[in-house]
């Protein structure tokens, strides 16, 4: 047998490889030189409108007092029943009321409202409540909007230092349990207290002492996350100074952190240097939950800038800014930052017996027609803020859209206040985005709550199959 020389085999392989490489390069150059046919195709998308479901709103209920029964230190009692106003849009189905059960508070049955859709349109639903109490341990006026439950919400307000008391009210108007986790932001940053994890049964309201969530905190901020079912969160906060009740309020939630926050209806009724003052009469509380940033806080009266302050915010640490020196009047407070923040303003009528205070929560943007419920209370006004660069025309129609209409022009960068009737429901239509809040101010009474956009105004969903 004759063997093929090794060099011959290697040479043959080299020649073959070279020929293949040349052919590959030539083919590649040819492919590059040839203009191949192309076909551009846009992604398929469908504008889908979700099937309408029933509209839901839950109220915080009346004012509660803790510790009245000396034999049961943690007992909670109903101190003042609420007065509630509610309605649906003109010509839409009526709402049904379903009181919630509060296992730990005898006699407390906060209202929850539901309204079925009309054919393929979701029903506008709105409600608000108010209550007044005058007792040795609890005194003041509170008003709150009855809101749809959320899977996440933020509470900016309250304190657990000496003299302060707080109760977190969590309502579940749904049909399945809600597993709730509360994170408390304070001087040590975000904390997950053992008492902050619990279940809210369907059709009930759970009452949790704020001190169990944030102990000895001057400026707490709460994040409430719910799974299984959404919950409606409200904080009742009160203060006692040297055994004298100094006010009570029900603090509305903030929907989510944002780089722009507007508080439209801040009433200052105490003149600078009011007698007995040991704390600022007006403050803004801020929190950047996850990213350190600098916030610009601007106070306006009408369309005029009253003050501007730059505030550095460290991630996870609440901060309070004194807005003292404001003359008696009504203001809007605007917060802008590079990172998302939550904000609310605290103001008081004074620091003596019979005085009251209010927490003014940031208002979400309204971009379509919505209802506004005005609960009973002293001298109610509707504050409408326009942060845009163009004038906005607003139509305010009484009787949930069926009554007389009032036209209001809101200049760019301004806030306009309209006197409204208590125990009434209006429909608000605007030519551009606005933020709005209902405010109250009277003798020993102060309260405010933001106006939320109607669920019925939700935008269609753009779906990419």
Task: List strands and helices in order, with pairings.
Layout: H1 6-33, E1 46-48, E2 55-58, E3 63-66, E4 76-80, E5 83-88, E6 96-97, E7 112-115, E8 125-134, E9 139-146, E10 152-156, E11 164-172, E12 178-186, E13 189-191, E14 197-200, E15 204-209, E16 221-227, E17 232-241, E18 244-251, E19 258-268, E20 282-287, E21 293-301, E22 304-313, E23 319-322, E24 329-348, E25 357-361, E26 370-374, E27 381-386, E28 392-397, E29 405-410, E30 414-419, E31 424-430, E32 435-442, E33 445-450, E34 461-463
Antiparallel strand pairs: 1-34, 2-7, 3-4, 5-8, 6-7, 8-9, 10-16, 11-15, 11-17, 12-13, 12-14, 12-16, 17-18, 19-24, 20-23, 20-24, 21-22, 21-24, 24-25, 26-31, 27-30, 27-32, 28-29, 28-31, 32-33
Describe what this molecule looks like in 3D.
There is one protein chain. The protein is mostly beta strands and 465 residues long. The chain has 1 helix and 34 strands. It has one helix spanning 6-33, and strands at 46-48, 55-58, 63-66, 76-80, 83-88, 96-97, 112-115, 125-134, 139-146, 152-156, 164-172, 178-186, 189-191, 197-200, 204-209, 221-227, 232-241, 244-251, 258-268, 282-287, 293-301, 304-313, 319-322, 329-348, 357-361, 370-374, 381-386, 392-397, 405-410, 414-419, 424-430, 435-442, 445-450, 461-463. Strands 19, 20, 21, 22, 23, 24 and 25 form a 7-stranded antiparallel sheet that branches. Strands 10, 12, 13, 14 and 16 form a 5-stranded antiparallel sheet that branches. A 4-stranded antiparallel sheet has the order 15-11-17-18, with no helix packed on it. A hairpin with a 4-residue loop joins strand 8 (125-134) and strand 9 (139-146). The longest helix is centred in the N-terminal third of the chain and has 28 residues, at 6-33. The chain is globular. It starts with 5 loop residues before the first helix and ends with a strand.
């Amino acid at each position: 047998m004759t063997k093929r020389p090794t060099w011959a085999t290697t040479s043959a392989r080299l020649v073959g490889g070279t020929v293949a490489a040349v052919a590959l390069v030539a083919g590649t150059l040819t492919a590059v030189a040839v203009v191949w046919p192309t076909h551009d195709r846009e992604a398929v998308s469908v504008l889908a409108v979700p099937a309408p479901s029933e509209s839901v709103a839950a109220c915080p209920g009346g004012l509660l007092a803790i510790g009245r029964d000396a034999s049961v230190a943690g007992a909670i009692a109903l101190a003042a029943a609420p007065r509630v106003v509610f309605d649906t849009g003109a010509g839409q189905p009526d709402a049904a009321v379903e009181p919630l059960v509060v296992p730990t508070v005898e006699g407390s049955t906060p209202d929850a409202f539901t309204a079925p859709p009309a054919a393929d349109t979701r029903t506008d639903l709105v409600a608000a409540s108010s209550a007044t109490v005058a007792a040795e341990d609890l005194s003041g006026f509170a008003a709150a909007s009855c809101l749809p439950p959320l899977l996440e919400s933020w509470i900016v307000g309250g304190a657990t230092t000496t003299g302060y008391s707080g109760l977190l009210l969590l309502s579940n108007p749904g049909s399945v349990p809600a597993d709730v986790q509360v994170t408390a932001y304070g001087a040590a940053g975000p904390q997950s207290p053992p008492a902050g994890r619990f279940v809210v049964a369907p059709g009930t309201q759970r009452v949790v002492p704020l001190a169990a969530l944030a102990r000895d905190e001057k400026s707490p901020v709460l994040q409430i996350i719910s799974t299984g079912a959404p919950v409606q969160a409200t904080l009742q906060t009160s203060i006692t100074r040297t055994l004298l009740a100094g006010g009570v309020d029900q603090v509305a939630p903030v929907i989510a952190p944002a780089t722009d926050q507007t508080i439209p209806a801040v009433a200052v009724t105490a003149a600078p240097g009011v007698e007995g003052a040991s704390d600022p009469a007006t403050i803004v509380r801020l929190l950047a939950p996850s990213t350190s940033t600098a916030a610009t806080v601007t106070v306006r009266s009408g369309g005029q800038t009253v003050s501007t302050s730059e505030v550095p915010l460290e991630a996870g640490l609440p901060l309070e800014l004194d807005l003292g020196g404001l003359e008696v009047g009504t203001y809007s407070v605007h917060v802008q930052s590079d990172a998302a923040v939550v904000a609310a303003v605290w103001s008081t009528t004074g620091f003596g017996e019979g005085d009251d205070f209010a927490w003014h929560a940031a208002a979400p943007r309204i971009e379509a027609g919505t209802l506004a419920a005005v609960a009973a209370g002293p001298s109610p006004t509707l504050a409408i803020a326009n942060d845009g660069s163009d004038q906005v025309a607003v139509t305010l129609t009484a009787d949930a859209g069926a009554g007389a209409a009032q036209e209001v022009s809101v200049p760019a960068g301004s806030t306009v206040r309209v006197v409204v009737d208590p125990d009434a429901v209006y429909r608000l239509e605007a030519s551009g985005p606005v933020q709005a809040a209902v405010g109250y101010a009277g003798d020993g009474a102060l309260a405010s709550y933001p106006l939320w956009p109607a669920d019925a105004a939700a935008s269609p969903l753009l779906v990419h199959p």
